[in-house]
Amino acid sequence: MEKHYLILAGLGFATIIMAWLPSFSEKMKISSPILLLLIGFGLYAVGLPLGWPDPLWDDQSLMYFSEALVIISLMGAGLKIGANYSLKAWRKPLLLVFITMPICMVSAFLLGQYFLLLSLPSSLLLAAVLAPTDPVLAAEVQLDDPLEEEEHANDIRFTLTAEAGLNDGIAYPFSYLAVLVAQAGSWAAFSFTDWLWDKLLLKVVIGVICGLFIGWLIGHLMDRIHKYAGVKTFVGFLALSLTFMTYGVTELLHGYGFLAVFFAGFSLRYYEKVDQDYKKKLHDFVQEMEHLFMVIYILLFGGSIMNGMLTLTDWKGVVFAFLFVLVVRPVAGLIGLWGVEKDFKSKLAISFFGIRGIGSIFYLSWAFVTFDYFSHKNELYAITAYIILISIVIHGFTAPSVIGHFKKRGKFEKKGSTLED
C-alpha cells in the first residue's frame, strides 16, 4: 500500500504544480514542458515507483495513451479557430501541409536510407512519423483564447494551429504506406493503387466530412434543444464526449479520426448560434484535460530518458535529429511559404516552430502494433525521442519570446492602422 500512496502523492504533486506552471513559464519566458521534464527527471532520481519505461513503453499501451492525448488536443485546436479567418489566411497552413510536409518526409526518407542506413520500410516509417507537427507540445505557439479572433495579430499562431490540426490526420496515410510495404515485403508486391484510393483519398475525405457534419450536428442540436425545449447546455464535459464519439464513429466509418476530431471542433466553433462563452468553456475544459495527460506523458518521457532511451541509437541518430529540427523543417517551411506576401521574420518563425511530439509517438507505436516485424525498432524510438527532446528544449526556450514579440508587434500595427483610419 505504501507504494500506491507514493504514486498518488507524486502524481498529485506534479499535477498541482501544473496549475502554476503556465504563469511561471510566462514570467521566465520558457515553455512549461521544459519545467515538467525537469520534474520528471527529479521524480525518477528520487525513485518514485511510477512504473517508469525500461526504457521503452509497451507499444499498445503507448499507442492508446498517445492516441487519447492527440485527439483531445486536436479538439482543442479546432475549437481555438474562430470564424473571422478568411480563405486567404488558410493559404499558409495549406502550403505547409501540401508543400512543406512532403519536403520534410522526402528529406527524412533519404536521410534514413543513405545516412542512417535503415531498411526501406523503416525509412518510410521514419518519414511518416516525423510528418505531423504537434498540437500538444506546441501550445505556446498556437492560439490560446478561442474568443481572440483578430486575424492580423494572430496570423502566426493561427497558421501553426491550423497546420497541426490538418497534418496530424494527413500523416496517417503515409504511416499506412510504411506498414503496407513492410507487410508486402517489397515495392513490387505492394499495391500502390489500393493505397492511393483507399488509405490516402477515401479515408481522408470521409474523415473531413464526418468531422464537419458531427460538429454541425451537435451545434444544431444544442440550438434546437434550447429553442424548443428550453434546455440549455452548460457542461464543458461535452467537448470530451464529442472528441471520443467523433473519433470512434469516424474510424468505424473507415475515415481518419484525427482529421474528423479537428474538423468537428472547428465546425462547432464556427456554428454561430452556439453561445460564444460556452464555446470558450468547451475549449477550456479540453485544454485542462490536455494539460493533465501532458503532465503524465512528459513525466514518464523524462523517466525513459533517465533510464537510457537515448542510448538506443548512435551518433548518426543524434545528428539526424538536430538536422531535422534545425535545418530540414525550417528550410522546407521557407520553401513552402516562398510565394506568400509576408515579411521574412514571420515566415521564418512559422517555419522554425514545426514542433514534433506526441503525434509522432502515436504513429510509431501504431505501426509497431499493426506490424511487429520492423527492423531498427529501438533506434526509431530513440531518434524520435531525441527529436521530441530537442523540440521541447530549443523551441521551449525560444517560443515564448518570439511569439511575445509578434503579439506586441501585431497590437502596435493594429493600433496604428486604427489611428490611420
Task: Give the strand content.
Answer: under 5%
Give the fraction of residues assigned to helices: over 70%
Q: Name the overall outline.
A: globular
Query: Which structural class should the secondary elements be placed in?
Result: mainly alpha
Pick out the low-confidence regions.
416-421
Write up what this structure looks like:
There is one protein chain. This protein is an all-alpha fold and 421 residues long. Helices cover 74% and strands 0% of the residues. It has helices at 2-18, 21-28, 32-45, 59-80, 91-114, 120-129, 155-170, 172-184, 192-229, 237-252, 257-270, 276-306, 315-336, 344-352, 358-370, 377-420. Residues 416-421 have low confidence and may be disordered.
Layout of helices and strands, plus pairs?
Blueprint lengths: L1 H17 L2 H8 L3 H14 L13 H22 L10 H24 L5 H10 L25 H16 L1 H13 L7 H38 L7 H16 L4 H14 L5 H31 L8 H22 L7 H9 L5 H13 L6 H44 L1
Task: Provide tags for this entry.
single chain; 421 residues; mainly alpha; 16 helices; disordered C terminus; transmembrane helix; Na+/solute_symporter_sf
Short description:
This protein is an all-alpha fold.
